[in-house]
Amino acid sequence: MVSVPDVNDGQVIEITVQSLSENVASLKEKVANKLKLRGKAGILKDDDKSLAHYNVRAGDILTLSW
């Protein structure tokens, strides 16, 4: 188990790794899979949907969070 703190609000997520010989790229992928992307329409949940589906426009600011 590896703990990854969020610098902004102090929240910690725990990620299970198979062993400590697992490479850094694998851990980064697991962290990325825990992230959420939020826009004006809420959380952009479905990776297969287009940005237009979620009404994201040029200049919009999206928020990345746990």
Task: Report on this structure.
- The structure is a single chain.
- This protein is an alpha+beta fold.
- It has one domain (1-63): Ubiquitin-like (UB roll).
- Helix content is 17%, strand content 26%.
- The protein has one helix and five strands, in the order ββαβββ.
- The chain has one helix at residues 24-34, and strands at 2-5, 12-15, 36-39, 42-43, 63-65.
- Strands 4-3-5 form a three-stranded antiparallel sheet, with no helix packed on it. Strands 1-2 form a two-stranded antiparallel sheet.
- The chain is elongated and about 40 Å long.
- It comes from Arabidopsis thaliana (Mouse-ear cress).
- This is Ubiquitin-like domain-containing protein.
- InterPro entries: Ubiquitin-like_domsf (IPR029071).
What topology does this entry show?
Blueprint: E1 2-5, E2 12-15, H1 24-34, E3 36-39, E4 42-43, E5 63-65
Record keyword descriptors for this entry.
66 residues, Ubiquitin-like (UB roll), three-stranded antiparallel beta sheet, 1 helix, 5 strands
Q: Could you give a quick summary of the protein structure above?
A:
Helices cover 17% and strands 26% of the residues.
- Secondary structure category: alpha+beta
Radius of gyration using CA atoms only: 15 Å
Task: For the largest sheet, list the strands in their spatial order.
Answer: 4-3-5
CATH topology: Ubiquitin-like (UB roll)
Give the percentage of residues in beta strands: 25-35%
Oligomer: single chain
Described by the principal axes of the CA atoms, the overall outline is elongated
Number of helices: 1
Main sheet properties: 3 strands, antiparallel
Helix content: 10-25%
Give the mean pLDDT: 84
Number of domains: 1
Distance between the termini: 17 Å
Q: Uncertain regions: pLDDT < 50 for 5+ in a row?
A: none
Number-wise, the strands total: 5
